[in-house]
Amino acid sequence: MKKRNFLKTSAIAASSVFIPKSLMSYEQSSKKLRTAHIGVGGMGFEDLNAISSHKNVEIVGLCDVDSEALVKSKLRFPNVKTYKDYRVMLNELSDKIDAVIVSTPDHTHAPAALMAMKKNKAVYCQKPLAHNVSEVREMRKIAEEKNLITQMGIQVHSFYDYKLATLLIQSGIVGRVSRVIAWSPKNWGYDGQNPKGVDPVPSNLDWNLWLGTAEKRPFKEKIYHPGNWRKLVDFGCGTLGDMGVHIFDTPYNALALDVPKRIRNKCRKPNGFGYPESNKVTYVFPGTSFTTEELEWIWYDGKGAPYSQKELRLPNKDKLPLQGAMFIGEKGRLLLPHFMQSPKLIVNGTYQKIDIKHYDPKGDLGPKLNDYKRDAPKHYHQFIDACLGIDKVSAPFSYSARLTETILLGVIAGRFPNKTLHWDSKKAQFKELEANVFLKGVERSF
Ligand SMILES: NC(=O)c1ccc[n+]([C@@H]2O[C@H](COP(=O)([O-])OP(=O)(O)OC[C@H]3O[C@@H](n4cnc5c(N)ncnc54)[C@H](O)[C@@H]3O)[C@@H](O)[C@H]2O)c1
Question: For a pocket test of ligand 1, which of 63, 126, 229, 242 has the largest count of ligand atoms closer than 8 A to its C-beta?
Answer without folding.
Answer: 126
